[in-house]
Specification:
The complex is a heterodimer of chains A (393) and B (976). Chain A has 393 residues and is α+β, with helices and mostly antiparallel strands. Chain A is built from 14 helices and 16 strands. The radius of gyration of chain B is 29 Å and the shape is globular. Chain B has 976 residues and is α/β, with parallel strands linked by helices. An eight-stranded mixed sheet of chain B has the order 5-4-21-20-19-6-7-18. In chain B, helix 4 packs across helix 24 and helix 9 crosses helix 14. Classes of the chains: A alpha+beta (393), B alpha/beta (976).
Amino acid sequence: MATIQKQVRMVFDLNKCIGCHTCSMACKTMWTDRNDGLMYMYWNNVETRPGKGYPKGFEDAASGAGFPDGNPYLTSDAMKKVLTDNPLRPIVSHYGAAWEYNYSEVLKVEGGNASSQMLVPSPEPNGPDAYASNWDEDVGREQMPNNYYFYVPRICNHCTKPGCVAACPRKAAYKREEDGVVLIDQDRCRGYRYCVKGCPYKKSYYNPREKISQKCIFCYPRLEDPKGFPTGRHSFCFTQCTGRIRYAGFFQPASATSDNFEAEHRDLLSGARSLSEFNARFNVNRLLYEYKVALRLRPEFGTQPNLFYVPPLSPPKLSSSGSVSSEQRVPIGLLAELFGDYAGQSYSERIARVGEIFEKIEDARAGRNPGLLRILIARTEQDRLQLDLGFAA
Amino acid sequence: MKRREFLKFATVAAGAVAAKDALAFDYLAPVGDPLGHYPYRGWEDLYRALWSFDWFGRTSHSVNCTGSCTWRGFVKNGILFKEEQFADYPEIESNLPPEQRKLPVYNPRGCQKGANHKEYVYGPQRVKYPLVRVGARGQGFFRKATWDEALGLVASKVVSAIDTPWSGGSHSPDAVTFFAAIPAKHHITLSGGFRLANLIGGVVCSFYDWYCDLPPGEPMTWGVQTDSCESADWFNSKYILIMGANLMETRIPDSHYFVEARYRGAKIVMVAPEYSPTSIHADLFVPIKPGTDGALCLGMANVIVGEGRFDRAYVKQFTDLPMLVRTDNGKILREADFVGPTPGLAPDADPRMRKVYLWNTAGEVPGPVIAPGSLGIPHNDPRWTLDLARFGIDPALEGSFTVTLQGGKEVTVTTVFELMKEKLAAYSPAAVSGITGIDASLVADMAREFAAAKPARIIEGAGTNHYFHNDLINRAQILLVALTGNVGTPGGGFDHYVGQEKLWAEHGFFELSFPLGRPKQRFQNTTLWTYAHADVKSDIDSILPRPLMSYIRESVANGWMPLWPKGTLDNGRDPKVLFVWGANYLNQAKGYQDVEGKLWPKLDLIVDLNFRMDSTAMYADVVLPAGSHFEKFDLSTTDLHTYVHPFTPIINLLHQSKSDWQIWRELAGALQQTGFKFTDPVPDGSTVTRDFSTLQSQFDTHHSRILGTTWDVSDDRNTCQFLLSASPETDRFNIAGPHRFANVGEMSSVPGDSIIKHPQRFPRTSEEWTSDIKEGVAYYGFQRMTEHKRPLLTLAGRQQFYLDHDWILYDFKEQLPVHKGPVDIDQYPLRWITPHGRWSIHSTWRDAKFQLRLQRGRPIVYLSPNEARARGLLDNDYVTIFNNHGRVDAHLCITPRLPDGLAMMYHGWERYTLNDGWQSPTNIRIKPTQLVGKYAQLNFRLNYWGPTGNQKDTRVDIRFKRRESSVSSAAASSAV
């Protein structure tokens, strides 16, 4: 088995995410505004949680998706399970239509007579079941004054065991050996959409115009050639992240096979192994293994995502009289449903981990962990955008 | 190549590759290991080819957002296809070695709207040619015209409007009105219209007060327009009380500083009626009844004063709390009380009316002493200082004293602090809990925490500033930060962020805009102008001591507020011509029904300069195509940071558009062709001969009093250079060098002091501002007061909480900050709020499909689950929002982020995205205390002092209109 020489790794700090969607627009305006088959896709999206996600309910039927141990491609039985358990989700009702508008009827910018005085989307998002990628923005859960919501931005996790790769019957999806970026070969793909089903995070998309599947490419043309710009190796969703929540770096596995990523992850987390000189260069790895404050989204899917999240603090609940309680309003159990370290971690372990992370963050805020605080604040862009360090001698 | 063709080309290219390989796939080549060695990677060039460009350049976005973000645009085949933050603001602390720096960087300033300005550059909204209306206004019927024809038409209408005699004069230049917003967002774009107005005698309208962004409490208390810290200073705070500000949505490029301050240990307390996005990153969310924030501040002040937690030394030196007030009439004790007024001087010009007193306890005999720093003390007098110790003054903060006035009358005087304590007694935590709905013990705890945490600051937004009683709310907020000694210290203060008023490089801007001088210019507060000319009917007379119109007449008659055309109230004169540029006046107007229905028909000519067809353009007579933000030279600044950076023409002007500056120039040329000439008596009492036959050279040639030289301002770039050179903030910089770069290396040929090289931080500030700029220090307000003991330009010379203008003192009893709740004149159950949101900057991007697709695709209104249930409404129902002012329809979003009793619609929806104006349910309500003038610090000045266009006191109801059937199964069936 070949080697991933160094794997791109990401941490998104949800305490810094302001829900501005600049990341989504940064990606959209570079890669997915080029034909109408791409328009509905958000390789990068931002979800309000609790919420239905993008596409709607993507987590609900993820069983069977992922990457069974020891087999890079699904066996036919496993493939059948992916097919049956993971129905394709219609674009309009689950991803949201890329609405078009009757501009030319309303705005006579070259002269002429308007035939309508009102701009309307087409198709109209009608009815109580209408949906789009950000339909339930800022809605959340529970009742005022103790309601809550927060934001989760998502891109392709560039998983160590990618579900899309496992599912592709044409073997058109792969991980690049030099950086672990997961790509779909646009020549080889025939649009069977097994990757769409196989990715439990639904970060592979079908382009109905081009009749092939497409996904986040981690802006690899930039990763390869920064063109002289100081942070030019980084994906647009990273360099344009106005909230400064995104950290990028590399993780270099100690051994030759990618299977060891997960074992290594556990070793490092437990302190059974220390970071190599190369891995210690990167704040992503220090957040993960030195300070242990970042978790995977839905690690139980088993694909070993390389995108990690710092879970969000939230303001305390208020009593019925309006006095301040000691309980934060986003239930820790909800966060533990979403976030954990690895696939086999129990729910109670996940709850404990989220609690531990919050303690670490409060410690840092109180001045008792200046090293962690420095990374969380990330004073300069070089503190969070560190792919260049992976190319240094 | 046009963008659409370019995209088509890109698609075809991708398709061609696929087609070729479709044949190649007769045989499917084998893949061994997909996790490390994939053998067929040649296809990857596909995306590499997309990420290539011919050149890039620097620009910004001139929208009223306060962002002032520097961006680069990438161009291929002449099409600007991608925008990215330049992210090269130099560090404030660049004077320090890196390991000693603490402030996070400003990079990468930007937002999702700025990331897609290209949609407007190439989209269907872009105005391509001069257009002349052929149907009814707003109907959207236009014909294409040539520039000569369009400008000739405008020029002849302008001349005929001016050349109209009336009973008080032979000409009517004051019927020609110019409305534009936010010079800081595009200095010369805005200046062009002002310059033409100044040369032809037209009226220049305000925006900051009309938009209700002016915090009236600042001119009242501090004698300033607004002087907030740059956002980097948020990082220095230990306690941030956010009131009615939604930083995460409305200050997207800056909000990382409050999140980072929180990490650094600051406590973030969010006070708002609704659980806004900013609340999610707070340490405490305090739900408050709408419009009662002033009461909360007064309650906190009550605790702080009552428990002795205020900064005694600070308030003695830097506030009017020790100032003496007569108890017989409530008036501030003045020098004129002892020696009589200066003979022959009007009260508002008499220094003896501008010297106030402290009770000095440090003298041999305690007694009254003129407060050093009083407004009536000349600036070259050593007593023009707040350094009390230098004059051996230790003022009494408490007590009552007897003084003998001229003529031997003895009166009792007391301190403002004593009077304040009496007022604050009404705001016990329990009483405030009843007003605000906040737990009483929480009010007290917040007060103690706020007083203990230094530095502490209040960040205020439109959520408090857009209320009728915004002046009172502001004054209560400022009281809280002044009592705790937080004004004039890094990380502390009252910092207001609504609107983009701060034009750092004012000197150059004002001289360029008003070449004949500001005293000769007709200026107009737009709230009053709109109220008068839209024939708005006051609906608040029942809560006023006398009818609003009586206050307006008195204010105008006294010369407190101007109202153009002259004689409007007596002679019924109407404005005849309206120019709008860099703004969307009609769409955003409060009292929309009256503005469209009654003001619009009075206008003979409405001209809109615009790159896109917005609602004002749609309702205009002539639309002139302006260049986009990618196609011109201009300058950008904001109060949120201390840098200047440029717009440059990364691409050439598209279609027949011209830069705004050039349009104004050419209009000057068209007016010159009329050869019109008249004599014009102007506001300063002099007379100006307006000779249009030389108007082009009057416009193009600038005789600078500041620089003592003559500048050719016919060229945009040269005009930018003049503005930079004539202002102390920017006079060390230029706009020189190349501006299109094939690669990063080419940027090295840009001079180091050029703003094209990178944003340049101001090295200093003019006297307009309350603080110096220091290397290594984020700008914060009132440093000159605390550090240099420089007085403020208020009557008291210090932070002034006691105002004794007759209207304020006697009619409204607001001499000190008090709480007055929202004006609930509308008898409807729901408070109607229309806050700024993340998806638009006012109306801009409201019609942009890439933004709409990330929302619900069309205008929505929010209600709580209870309110929706009570009305039998389901999510996404089509509903009507209505009251007795107007109605508008939208789709419903049900969310628990709202409390019961509140309906919310993010503002700015274009008229043509709705069935009526989004401001239809609002009315224009002028608070008379904001019509006062000729009172020390309260004098009309454009965008500095004048009545605000508040609208948050509006109430509405919502009813079901239609439940549309779900998305058709046919449309839904196109599965991926």
